[in-house]
Amino acid sequence: MHSSGISNIAKKKRIFDACMAKMRVQEEKVILVREMRNLCTYLNQLAGSIRKMTTEMSSGESRGNVSEEGHRGLICLLRKRLLDLEEKLKAVCARYRQALGSDANSLLQDVPEEDIQEQHDDPYESTDDSD
């Protein structure tokens, strides 16, 4: 009877440990998905800020004391940064969707599912044609 009591306790402990491990995995999945979503949201917001800055600079609103050549250079750098950021966002979201499977759309709802469209044919081309 003594050995069956010990084996019964050991069996209960294994079941309890398995249940606790499952609960920890579920908690960690929630945290991981939240972090994935936060990263995608951050990258989207950063891309939006760069788009806004590029638009403002292209319209000449925030030129300041910068020369014409410097102004065109800044716009070019912003467009390059935006392109790099959009590629990173697309890659990150694609990996997250692949990892999350069918749950991806509901869990990453703030992130656009379609590919990010380029706003310009040539992101490095200056809006001013006077060279």
- In DSSP terms (H or I, runs of 4 or more residues), the helix count works out at 3
What's the gyration radius in Å? 26 Å
Could you give the distance between the termini? 95 Å
Helical fraction equals over 70%
Instruction: Tell me how many strands there are.
Output: 0
Largest sheet: none
H-E order: HHH
Uncertain spans: 113-131
- Please tell me the overall pLDDT: 79
Strand content: under 5%
Helix/sheet category: mainly alpha
Structural shape: rod-shaped
Provide a compact summary of the structure.
The protein is mainly α and 131 residues long. The protein is 72% helix and 0% strand.
Care to describe what's here?
It is built from three helices and no strands. The chain is mainly alpha-helical and 131 residues long. It has a domain at 33-107. Helix 1 (2-58) runs antiparallel to helix 2 (68-100). The termini are far apart.
